[in-house]
Automatic annotation (TrEMBL):
<dbReference type="InterPro" id="IPR004873">
    <property type="entry name" value="BURP_dom"/>
</dbReference>
<feature type="domain" description="BURP">
    <location>
        <begin position="62"/>
        <end position="279"/>
    </location>
</feature>
<dbReference type="Pfam" id="PF03181">
    <property type="entry name" value="BURP"/>
</dbReference>
<feature type="signal peptide">
    <location>
        <begin position="1"/>
        <end position="25"/>
    </location>
</feature>
<protein>
    <recommendedName>
        <fullName>BURP domain-containing protein</fullName>
    </recommendedName>
</protein>
<dbReference type="InterPro" id="IPR044816">
    <property type="entry name" value="BURP"/>
</dbReference>
<keyword id="KW-0732">Signal</keyword>
Amino acid sequence: MEFRPTLYILLHSLLVFQLLSASRAREIAKDCDNMHGVLKIQVKEQSTTSPTEPLNTQLNIFFTPKDLKIGKIMPLFFALKDPSTSPHLLPKEEADSIPFSSSNLPYLLEFFSFSKNSPQAKAMEDTFFHCEISAMNGESKFCATSLESMLDWTREIFGFNTKLDVYTTNFIKKSPVTLQNYTILQKPKEILVPKLVACHSLPYPYAVFYCHMQKGENKLFKILLVGENGDRIEAAAICHMDTKEWNHDHVAFRVLKVQPGSSPVCHFFPVDNLVWVPSSSM
């Protein structure tokens, strides 16, 4: 089965734009009730865990280039996503009318009717941390609060006249199982790109994406997987070939049992993450 760049999430977001009115900023606060639990550990490159802390099952997304072969079996976590309960993207005008910074957190908690000690408040605080922390060496980063701002920043990286393609991970056949052994069915196909922008979803009352571009060699792949129970996934994955500048406490090194600079680090993208590439490079 051929894997194609998908615009499903993009088209869904545009549909949401048509359905949302300018007066709904407070109504969407109820979506934030779905944020509590674990702050999404979906490959935010600054994420770390204590060496003594048990690894969360959601971290079963990492691998190395040596694993990219037909028949390779890996235990992988792919979360189930329900668009009806996920935070929605806002139109840029509406998103820009709402402050987005940790300095405004008290006001925002009142605006969205959350108490300062609530799980939602903690999730928002964590999101601001990821958005406001300094970029790593060689990294460009931006937190997008609307589709327009995401596209504007991506075009700044690639060039304003660049046409874009977007990749993500799609369920072809999916059961309620989130963690199971998956087998690579076909030879993984590398998407040859000079550079790419990855956008990871962050928990917030409305959709916010942590977008970044890392200098150095990064390889994008599309991989067809089948689960032990028959689930089938068309997965987007990236391999960061140079990790010597990464934080020694990065959780990927614990998962893969490697050291910074000793091995490339690869990971699968969750279904609500996006990878933007120049279409001319396809």
